[in-house]
Amino acid sequence: MKFTAGLLSTLTFVLGQSALAQEAAAPKIDTGDTAWVLMSAALVLLMTPGLAFFYAGMTRTKNVVSTLFQNFAALGVIGVLWAVCGYSLAFGPSTGGLIGNFDYFFLNNVGQTPNADYAATIPHSLFMLFQCMFAVITPVLISGAIAERVKFKGFLAFIALWSLLVYVPAAHWVWGVGGFVRNLGSLDFAGGMVVHMTAGFSAIVAVLLLKSRRDFNRTEVKPYDTGMVLLGTSLLWFGWFGFNAGSALGANGLAAHAFGTTFFCSAMCMVTWMVMDIFRRGKASAMGAAVGAVAGLVVITPAAGFVTFTSALMMGLIGGVVCHTAVHLVKNRFKLDDSLDVIGCHGVGGTLGTFLTAVFATKAVNPAGADGLINGSTALFNAHMLGTLAVLVLAVVGTVVAYKIADLVFGMRVTDKEEIVGLDVTQHDEMINSNFEDEQPVRKAA
Question: How far, CA to CA in Å, does 208 sit from each of 12, 60, 116, 292?
C-alpha cells in the first residue's frame, strides 16, 4: 500500500510538473510587451509623416505639397495592400523559402492570440500592424530620389507594385520563418536589408529610368525650409526608437539596449558629418547635420540589437565618413540626380550597416544572434555577402518591372512645362502657403 501510494504521489508530481512546463512554454500575451509594441507601432507610423517633412523641406517651394502628399498617400495605399495580401505573402508559412502562402489573405487567421513563430507574448494582430508600418515607409523612401519630376498617379502605381515585387519578398527572405536569406544565418534586427538596402538600390534604378531634372547641376536649388527638415529629422529620430527598440518585440533589456545603440550611433554620425562639412566647406550645415543624423539611424538599424554601445559609436563614425563621401560622389562624380540623398543615406548606409553588423555583432549582447569578425567568426559575414547580393538582384529586377508597368499605364515623368511650373499646381491644383484659386486671373464677363 505504501509503495502504491508513493508511486501515485510521484506520478502526480511528474504530471503536474509536465503540465506546468507546457503552460510556461505555451504562447501567452504579456501586457507590458503588448503595450510597448503598440507604442512602437505608433512611433513607426509617425516616421512616415516625419519623412514627409524631412523631404519636403529640401524641395523647392513649388513642389512642397506634392512631396508631402506622396508620403502621406502611402499610408493609405500600402496600408490597404498589406491587409489584402502583403502580410500573408511576407509572413505567411513559407513556400520554398521565397514567399509566404495565402493563409493570411485579407488578414484571415490573424487574431488576438500570439503567433509563436514571430512573437509569443503579443497578439498576432499587433505583430502584423507593427510590420505594416515598416511596409508603409519603405517605398516612399524612394520618393526622395525622384522628387520634383514624377507624376502622382504613376508614383502611386509604382509604390504599390514595388511593395509586392520587392518589399514583400525581401521581408519574407530575411525575416520570414523559412526565408532563404534567414536560413543562411543572416541578421537584420530592424531592416538594414529589408528596408534601407531595397529602397537604396531601387533608388539608383529609379533615378536612371526617370532621368535627371531638367536643371540638375545647372541652377542652384533653394530648399523650401531648413526648419522643416530639422522638424522631420526630429520626428524620424523619435520614431526610430520604435523602429529599432520596438523590434525586440517586448519591453525588455534588449529593447533598452537597442534604444541606446540607436541614439549613440546617430549622434556620432551627425557629429562626424558636421566635422566633415567644416573641413570641406568651412562651416557646418544644419541640413547636413540632419542628413548625418538620419544616415546614422540607417547604419545602426540592422545592428541595433546585436552590437555593444562602443561598437555603435564606431559604426556612427564610420557611417559619417562613408555616407558623407557617398552623397557627394553620387551627384558630383556619377552625376546621378538623387534629389534628396536617398542613395548615399539609405543605399550606402544600409549596406554599410549590414556589413558592420557582421563585423561587430556579439552573442554577449544577444545570445540569439551571432558573433562577427572581431569575435572570431566569418559565418555571419559570408551570410551577409550572399544576402546582400540576393537583395540587390531582387531590388533591381523588381524596380524595373514596377516602373515599366506604372509608366505604361499612367506615365511616370512629368513634362518639361509641368516640371517648370511645379508639381503642386500641375498634379494637385494646390500650393503651399497660398490659395491656388486666388492666383488665377479673373475672367471678364462675355
Answer: 71, 22, 43, 25
**351-371 mean pLDDT:** 98
Q: What is the pTM of this model?
A: 0.91
Give residue 167's Cα distance to chain centre: 10
Residue 274: partners with Cβ closer than 8 Å, 6 or more residues away:
284, 285, 288, 289, 292
Residues in contact with 17: Cβ distance below 8 Å, sequence separation at least 6, in sequence order: none
The rounded distance, in Å, linking the Cα atoms of 127 and 164 is: 19
User: Rounded CA gap, 266 and 237, in Å?
Assistant: 8
Mean pLDDT of 331-348: 96
CATH architecture of 27-435: Orthogonal Bundle (1.10)
Residues 340, 56: Cα–Cα separation, whole Å = 10
pLDDT 10s digits, 68-103: 999 999 999 999 999 999 999 999 999 999 999 999
Q: Report d(CA 89, CA 236) in Å as an integer.
A: 28
Asked if residue 342 lies in contact with residue 145, where contact means CB atoms within 8 angstroms, the answer is yes
Q: Which helix (H) or strand (E) holds 139?
A: helix 124-141
Q: How many residues does the chain have?
A: 446
Determine the longest span between alpha carbons in the chain, in angstroms.
Answer: 115
Site of grid cell 546582400:
388
